[in-house]
Write a structure and sequence with these properties.
This is Late embryogenesis abundant protein LEA-2 subgroup domain-containing protein. The protein contains 2 helices and 10 strands; from the N terminus they run H-E-E-E-E-E-E-E-H-E-E-E. The longest helix is centred in the first third of the chain and has 38 residues, at about 15-55. It is of the alpha+beta class.
């Protein structure tokens, strides 16, 4: 009696329908991955935008003149020539506060001493960086250049009268980088009257202006 060989389990060949279904699943998986990546990117961008408009919003550095004083004042009156030889040195103490959550970098600048709109003295302000929420103190010395006043007819009469109007001017220009770089310029102007006899500063009025 002959035994029939035992037949193994038959394997079904993939059909076009199976290939189509697998391809469809792969496309769906790739689409879901792409959508998830796009959603994460949009979420990150949204978070940065919210932080940029709130916590990290660019704020204007605040410049404040704490004091202006006369360090030195010497003068001599030439009655024959109706002119005055005048030397004045003014000390200016100012502070710059950076209210931002990132550093504020400023470029080389200068402080000016003016007499009736004419620049008669200058002091350099070297470039630097002010850290987040830091207040930087600056002590500037402005020396009046006597030769620049020789041709001004007002100096003689004002020195004789006992007062000399001067003006200090500082301009600090720099950048704050949060999501992108923002250019900031801070201006400070102080009008003051120097009492010739007491060699001190009388009236003093300061004005502040900042541009983003």
């Amino acid at each position: 009696m002959e035994l029939e060989p035992k037949q193994g389990k038959s394997m079904r060949s993939p059909t076009p329908t199976d290939h189509h279904h697998t391809s469809k699943l792969r496309r769906r998986r790739r689409r879901n991955i792409c959508l998830a990546v796009i959603a994460v990117i949009l979420l990150v961008v949204l978070i940065f935008v919210i932080l940029g408009l709130t916590v990290f919003k660019a704020k204007r550095p605040l410049t404040t003149v704490n004091s202006v004083s006369v360090r030195d004042l010497d003068f001599s009156i030439d009655i024959a020539r109706v002119r005055v030889l005048l030397n004045v040195t003014v000390d200016v103490n100012l502070s710059i506060k950076n209210p931002n959550k990132v550093g504020f970098k400023y470029t080389n600048s200068s402080a000016l001493l003016k007499y009736r709109g004419e620049v008669v003295g200058e002091a350099p302000i070297p470039a630097g960086k002010i850290s987040a929420d830091e207040t930087r103190q600056m002590n500037l010395t402005l020396t009046l250049m006597a030769d620049r006043l020789l041709s001004n007819p007002n100096v003689y009469s004002e020195v004789i009268a006992g007062t000399l109007p001067l003006q200090t001017y500082t301009r600090i220009s720099g950048k704050v980088q949060i999501l992108f770089k923002i250019h900031v310029v801070s201006y400070t102007t102080c009008d003051l009257t120097v009492d010739i006899r007491s060699r001190s500063v009388g009236n003093q009025t300061c004005h502040y202006k900042t541009k983003l």
